[in-house]
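Training component of the fellowship. As part of building independent skills, the fellow (R.M.) carried out the full modelling exercise for a liganded target. The chosen ligand was FE2/S2 (inorganic) cluster. The inputs are recorded below so that the supervisory panel can assess the work.
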Amino acid sequence: MSSRRDFLSGAWAAAGAGAAVAGAAVLGKALSGSPEEARTVELPEALLMKAERDGGLVHDGLLVRGPATAPVVLDLTCTHLRCRVAPVEGGGFSCPCHGSRYDAEGRPVSGPALKALARPHLMRAGSGFTARLS
Ligand code: FES
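Fellow's submitted model of the complex:
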């Protein structure tokens, strides 16, 4: 005869096993360096104007800079194992996970990352753009 304690113990064990499987899948994906699913980010004109005026800004994981009519966009996802890189003082980017450094154009300069930061494909969308990350 099973008791309430047995039932709860089994439920917790099942929940723990499920969490372990989900965690392993996420970790495996992160360690494989496999790309995330393709996504798009809208870059409306007002955001592009602000980026131009302020000398650049970070929006939804992207660095946006340059003229609003011809923006330059970098994906701030580290090309090593996909951590989020951050702009550093004096230009360039740094990854907090394993210390990769990129120059201001997103080219790797040190650390384990070997590929440059991705530049999303930009498509005109009204008076703004849509950035497509693959
Ligand atoms: S994820 Fe390893 S250096 Fe960025």
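The panel noted the following from the submitted structure. The pocket of FE2/S2 (inorganic) cluster is lined by residues 78, 80-81, 83, 95, 97-100, 111-113 (CB under 6 Å). The two ends are 55 Å apart (CA to CA).
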